[in-house]
Amino acid sequence: MTDLEMSVISLISSAGDSKAKAFEALKAVKTGEYDKARELLAESYKVDLEAHKEQTKLIQQEMDPEADKTPITLLMVHAQDHYMTSQLARDLIETLIEVFESKEGGK
């Protein structure tokens, strides 16, 4: 496996982990565990940083005039899509948690 493929797989994996943590947070809200939900969202953000680092590295490589251009592959497109949807899911889930908590008179 090439370095590029490893970076792309790392991006997909980190994005998936981030999204999974966000959905775990939403499940915690169903049982009123808001502190646990916040912890899981914090973990989601932390994992997202790993995905962001990989994405930034790939973008910098592509913009480097001295480097070979990064080939755009289906796997690369999938990785970017996976990363973007994980961010969207986390942001929406964070807002849902705030809404549910305010409805219940939480914090």
TrEMBL record:
A GO biological process held by the record: phosphoenolpyruvate-dependent sugar phosphotransferase system
Protein name listed in UniProt: PTS lactose/cellobiose transporter subunit IIA
Active site: 78 (tele-phosphohistidine intermediate)
Binding site for Mg(2+): 81
Pfam families with a match to the protein in the record: PTS_IIA (PF02255)
Keyword Transferase carried by entry: yes
Cofactor binding remark: Binds 1 Mg(2+) ion per trimer.
CC cofactor: Mg(2+)
Superkingdom, natural source: Bacteria
Modified residues (Phosphohistidine): 78
Organism of this sequence: [Eubacterium] hominis
Transport is among the record's keywords: yes
Keywords associated with the record: Magnesium, Metal-binding, Phosphotransferase system, Sugar transport, Transferase, Transport
GO molecular function per UniProt: metal ion binding; transferase activity
